[in-house]
Amino acid sequence: MSHDDILDAEAIAMLQSMSSDDGGQFFNELIDIFLGDTPTRIEEVRATLSGGDLSTGQRAAHSIKGAAGNFGAHQLAHLAHEIEQLAQNFDLNAMTAALPKLDAEYARVKAALEAVRIK
What we know:
Blueprint lengths: L8 H9 L7 H25 L4 H17 L3 H15 L3 H25 L3
């Protein structure tokens, strides 16, 4: 499977070009930050569904949307945006239904990012 259906090749190339003089270290650090932070944000969304603060879930989804967008992970960004809007509209049932899709897409993005990591 090509990673082009998960990550935007132009976004990845642009980020990689920012790391051309350090052997990929900066690019790999960006990946590490994303992979370290996003599961925490997903858990914040999940906590919202079990009685947490909706504004926290909304901010967490917004953070996921922005970070995913940086890597051109458009489907993940779209799902996060959807959840952000659902939180804003206090629609916990739809958020609950959307969360497994967010989890699955994050797993796809994680695998794709690991594959494009500069060795």
